Amino acid sequence: MTSLTNRVRRAIAAGVVVAALSVSTSCGAGAGTNASPHAAASSPGPALPSRAQILASMRKANDYWIKTYRSAGANKWNVAVYLHGDMAAYEDIHDPAYRAYALAWAKQNGFALSNDSATAPTRNADDQVSGQVYLDLYRDHPQRSDLTATVRSVQAMTDSSATNDWWWVDALYMGMPVFARLAQVENRPSYVDKMYALYHSTRDIRDENGLYDKTAHLWSRDQNHRGVFWSRGNGWAFAALAETLTALPAGAAHHSEYVTTFQDMAAALAARQRSDGFWNSDLGNAKDFGGPETSGTALFTYGIAWGIRHGLLDAARYQPVLVKAWHALSTVALHSNGLVGYVQPVGGAPAATSSGRTADFGVGAFLLAGDQVAKLAH
Predict the structure, then answer these.
(1) What whole-number distance in Å separates Cα of residue 323 and Cα of residue 318?
(2) Cβ(289)–Cβ(281) below 8 Å
């Protein structure tokens, strides 16, 4: 677990092609690919496994989940995160069963948002993340009615003067990409402006100084956990920035600010990676629930791979981090039967997990990571 296998050492990488405006779109990263280069990437580091090997790991994980859970379940954030990953796998593997699984869930729930109604649109980001899946489905089969509830919720928040809805860091991932992607589909720049106001409140204003530590370059989960750098919470923020930057035009307001935070986070995360490729549940204390944790690791892997692909992270510096992380996910977290283990259960702070612990959102994060890593492994 502390070194790369011979299989990984022998894997051939044809190199990392860094392009900001010509990289193919990932459904796990939003509706468009508009992030522009911020830092030129140098030659890539250690080789990734082949694309075929990465896709095989993704298929194993997704097939296991769909076979085990014939119905995706209720219209909740955890299911939506999984299905967003499922749709990323569909884009890469082209198995129609993957899209059909997400579509059946969307139809079962009437393309609605949880805790939402026409007279009282939800303001809760956990409810809005279902819009990610609806936008994924919309991309290759546009049906305006499928976005009705999502548009209504985002529009209601945009029309409101309130900016303090995103009081916990997870909300950045649940809400930001929906605002950013929907702004492009609806041609509503006001959605991007509102998204920034909400983000700025979370980052810089909440509880006087915001949830983002500008020295550590990491996030507290909420004001009750200030100074505790929870792995998955930071994973949500890191992935949120990647997905938001994918959807935003390069010249969008605050684009460079998002990029800077993303790059600063990447450096902080790279310094905290375990020798086995995972990250601890607690990024600030290796002895606090020390051990492998998949959900945070997968979200970091997703973001780092995305950053290399889009020229925002230097390949020579970050590909060794990425290779170790994907090796950990695909050979330790992923069991031979397809179960993705070491997923910390639902919570809001570092906690214990184990080899057999899995969860839908953890599988979704694994698939999102695989999607971006596979796009590097040409």
Answers:
(1) 9
(2) yes
Is residue 357 within 8 A of residue 341, CB to CB? The reply is: yes
- What residue type is assigned to position 141 of the chain? H
Distances (CA, A) of 57 to 52, 62, 133, 270, 374: 9, 9, 22, 24, 10
- Contacts of residue 331, defined as CB under 8 A and 6 or more positions apart, other chains included, come to 5
The pLDDT averaged over each successive group of 10 residues in the chain (378 residues) is 38 34 38 40 71 98 98 95 98 98 97 97 98 97 97 98 98 98 97 98 93 98 96 98 95 96 98 98 95 98 98 97 98 98 98 98 98 94
Question: Could you count the other beta carbons within 10 Å of the beta carbon of residue 240?
Answer: 26
Using alpha carbons only, give the angle 167, 245, 155 rounded to the nearest 5 degrees: 55
Does an H or E element contain 10, and which?
A: helix 6-10
Structure tokens given for 50:
């082949």
Q: How far is 236 from 303, CA to CA, in rounded Å?
A: 10
DSSP, collapsed to helix, strand or coil, labels residue 337 as coil
- Report the SS3 class of residue 213: strand
304-to-18, 343, 346, 360, 366 alpha-carbon distances in Å: 13, 19, 24, 22, 13
Which of 225, 212, 222 is CA-nearest to residue 262? 212
Residue for token digits 């999607």? 371
Rg, C-alpha atoms of the chain? 19
- Distances from the Cα of 90 to the Cαs of 93, 274, 331, in angstroms? 5, 31, 22
d(CA 268, CA 346): 24
Q: Taking the CA of residue 117 as centre, how many other CA atoms within 13 Å lie in the half-sphere pointing to its CB?
A: 2
Reduced to 3 states (helix: H, G, I; strand: E, B; else coil), residue 219 is strand
Name the helix (H) or strand (E) containing 159. Answer: helix 148-159
Are 229 and 284 a contacting pair, CB within 8 Å?
Answer: yes
Q: Name the DSSP class of 8.
A: H
